[in-house]
Write a structure and sequence with these properties.
The chain has helices spanning 2-72, 77-224. It is mainly α and 225 residues long. Belongs to the intermediate filament family.
């Protein structure tokens, strides 16, 4: 179980490293998007300024053409004025349309970048949340591993005490077994001695029986005679 918990802790630490890498990547992406937004805003301001300058240039050009037309005579003035007015109106409409298209394009780009920044921010928030959860799990597993280490140390001490106690008992049992073996060996030797004495007595008895039978035979022979 301790090995399993240690493996879980290593896996959680590896996941934490990956989460940190994802967080760093998301942070770099957010910074890059913010930089691009600032560049687009600056470019949009520059284009607005450029359109305003073009519009002023066209107004100056129209006024210059109108002044030249006025210098050529009063008969052609109404026609030139109307033509210049039309040209000015066309230039203004074209400038307004270009400015609107540019603003719409930059608004669309800004909206896309904002969505991407929001997505990256959400991913960063989820990564931080997962990192915090992984950190909490690691702390919990660390506490559990510490508790298991303490339990393991206590069990090892208990096992050592039991081994010492059983070692003493085994030593006493071995001494008792040794004494019993010595006693059994002594009894075997004594039984062997008694067996030899019994066999000697048996031989003596058999010899005596033979001798008694011989004397009985002699006595019977004497009595019958």
């Amino acid at each position: 179980r301790l090995d399993d918990e240690m493996q879980k802790r290593e896996d959680a630490e590896k996941s934490l490293v990956l989460f940190r890498k994802d967080v760093d990547d998301a942070t770099l992406s957010r910074l890059e998007l913010e930089r691009r937004i600032e560049l687009l805003m600056d470019e949009m301001g520059f284009l607005k300024k450029l359109h305003e300058e073009e519009l002023r240039d066209m107004e100056v050009s129209a006024q210059s053409q109108q002044a030249q037309a006025e210098a050529q005579g009063e008969l052609r003035q109404p026609e030139l004025t109307a033509a210049l007015r039309d040209i000015r109106t066309q230039y203004e409409s074209i400038a307004v349309r270009n400015l609107q298209e540019a603003e719409e394009w930059y608004k669309s780009k800004f909206a896309d970048l904002s969505d991407a920044a929001n997505r990256n921010h959400e991913a960063l928030r989820m990564a931080k949340q997962e990192m915090n959860e992984s950190r909490r799990q690691i702390q919990s597993l660390t506490c559990e591993v510490d508790g298991l280490k303490g339990m393991n140390a206590a069990l090892q001490r208990q096992m050592q005490e039991m081994e010492d106690e059983f070692g003493e008992e085994i030593g006493s049992y071995q001494e008792a077994v040794g004494r019993l073996e010595q006693e059994i060996q002594r009894m075997k030797e004594e039984m062997a001695r008694h067996l030899r004495e019994y066999q000697d007595l048996l031989h003596v008895k058999m010899a005596l029986d033979v001798e008694i039978a011989a004397y009985r035979t002699l006595l019977e022979g004497e009595e019958s005679r």
